[in-house]
Amino acid sequence: MVTNIMPYKRTVNPPLGLATLAALCPPDWEIEIIDENVEPVPLSPDADLVGVCGMGIQFDRQAELLNYYKAAGYFVVAGGSYVSLCPELYETIADTIIAGEAEYIWKEFCRDFEAGHSKPCYKEEGIVDLRDSPTPRFDLLKLKEYMSVSLQFSRGCPYQCEFCDIIVMFGRKPRTKSIQQVELELDLLRENGVQNVFFVDDNLIGNSRSAKQLISFLIEYQTRHDYRFNFGTEASLNLSRDAELLTLFRKANFEWVFIGIESPDENSLKEIKKYQNLKEDILTSVRTIYSHGIQVYGGFIIGFDNDTINTYNQQFQFITQSGIQMAMVGLLTALPKTPLYNRLQEEGRLIDKKETSDNTKLGTNFIPKQMGYEEMVDGYRSLYFQLMDNNNIAQRIINKLKYLKSPVYQGGYSAVEQFRMFLRLTGHGLLGNPRRLYHFIRSVPINKPEMFPVVVHDWIVGISMQDYVRRYFKLEFGLDHRLSESYFKKFEINLHKYLRTGALELSLKSISQNAAHFSVKLKGLVDTKFFIQVTKHLKKILRKTASTVTLNIEECQEAQIENFQKCLKKLSVYGDRITIRVDKRLMKMIAIDSSIFNLELSVEPIRSIETEWEGTIP
Ligand code: SF4
Q1: Could you give the CA distance from residue 287 to residue 294 in angstroms, rounded to a whole number?
Q2: Distance from the alpha carbon of residue 168 to the mean position of ligand 1, in angstroms
Q3: Lowest CB count within 10 Å: 73, 183, 187, 240, which one?
């Protein structure tokens, strides 16, 4: 949805860690940064060294890339936050592991690599002084592809939330860069035409004295440069009790702040040691921040030992009353090395679930205390559907606008671009959906035109999340599976000619918890009509069901490659649900954008091209 309304933006933030790492390399090294969120990975890069970075949620892809490049003969290095947390997982798949903050150890690795004797692991055992952190190589990032650009002032957080891996990695004593370093980074971003800057600190106000110094400087900088930047950041809820800090935030042009609220239930907050959220009624805190014109984005978690099935309703009521549109609700996940993980391990409650680090999926890695596992997952799914109802999106906007005073956010872009965005929102999201249009209209405060950009923003957020939830959190699995089965049968009948000659194999191999999975294997001679038929059927299946598809291309005549590419172009809107395997021989002839599709990088030659449904639908 966002890509329909902001077609020139591919994702939210660029990989700041890689830009920092690039700045730590010897000056004569030639460096290219590839972010698979915005561009395909190169299959045969002209490189002496390939580094693959990732967070826990990206572990599978990171491992796949490391294996692929290693098998292709490259020297591969693994880095990123998950390597820092769990270096042992990477021992067999990378030539070298960089675990921990990179400022000192990456330089050491570069020296050793040039001298030809790099070690298998470089682990930062001490503490990095952020004044030694270089200015990131923003010039190596495709900045125009991102909604905002990250900048880091501090690392670490003084609090002790039980589930948090940040304090495990960066410690509880916030460390900061100097004001001069920040100024240099802002100058570069300004020269590169950046408008929206995200202070990606773990908790920007972890040390309130340093935060005040920084923000006072930002006010002065903004005044000097005609209020060039719109800022956003992450901070703890105690921000609401510091009126001076809030006033500074507003003056510096902070439009929004992301806060880990986690739960409106005091007992849950005590259980996880989130004491900073217990000092004041949370709803009052959120509204205090609104009263300074700053929007609140919130993180919420369900699954604490104190939580029961009634917690879902409590969360729903709180989120609605607080008017937080950007409500990131996740199931509690025990991240390795955290106190939560250690406790659950001692209690024998960890379970081997795949979704161990992705708290947006329908699953987690431990047994809840006061709910059944399935009960917890079902409650989570229902909560999201409830939140994403058009009526509730509108209600949150109405509730927020009662307390939001003269918002700092004025659209984030030029007036012309904002008008275009509104037209696209109308065309793609409102017209053709009378119920949504009705709720949109009722959420617009006629007597407060200055709120209109906030309303438009919140509807873009709401519709995008609605789209995500509808695609990934299907409720009617039985119905969805029956639908998939009937489409599959039609698919088989229409492509009978190719199935008979053995040019094609179709199967329904397996059914995940959420949806069915089609597999299509192309292994022989086909004609133009084949691709027209396949495109038509797959589009229908992907549009009408939550199914996933694997396209396995074993064979494809050169004359048909253009047709195959056309087929992919038409399916690209569903790219996140399509996995493509291409035989090694064809890899060079067929261009597949791995930032759109899940391109499987096999280290073994593929034996055949397939689209298969595996198994039988119950
Ligand atoms: S406030 Fe946030 S960053 Fe700090 S310990 Fe808690 S969860 Fe971690």
Answers
A1: 10
A2: 10
A3: 73
CA–CA separation, 59 and 603 (whole Å)? 17
- Could you tell which of 162, 166, 273 is best to mutate to test the pocket of ligand 1, judged by most ligand atoms within 8 Å of the CB? 166
Phi and psi at 377, nearest 5°, equal -65, -45
Q: Does residue 494 contact residue 533 with C-beta atoms inside 8 Å?
A: yes
Which of 468, 470, 390 shows the shortest CA–CA distance to 430? 390
Q: Please work out whether the CB of residue 338 comes within 6 Å of at least one atom of ligand 1.
A: no
Which pTM value belongs to this model?
0.90
Q: Which atom of ligand 1 is nearest to the CA of 157?
A: 4
Helix 373-387 / helix 452-472 crossing angle, nearest 10 deg: 140
Question: E-assigned strands of 161-315?
Answer: 175-176, 196-199, 230-234, 254-262, 295-302
- Does any ligand 1 atom lie closer than 6 A to the CB of residue 286? no
The verdict on the CB of residue 609 being under 6 Å from ligand 1 is no
* pLDDT tens digits for range 101-157: 999 999 999 999 999 999 999 999 999 999 999 999 999 999 999 999 999 999 999
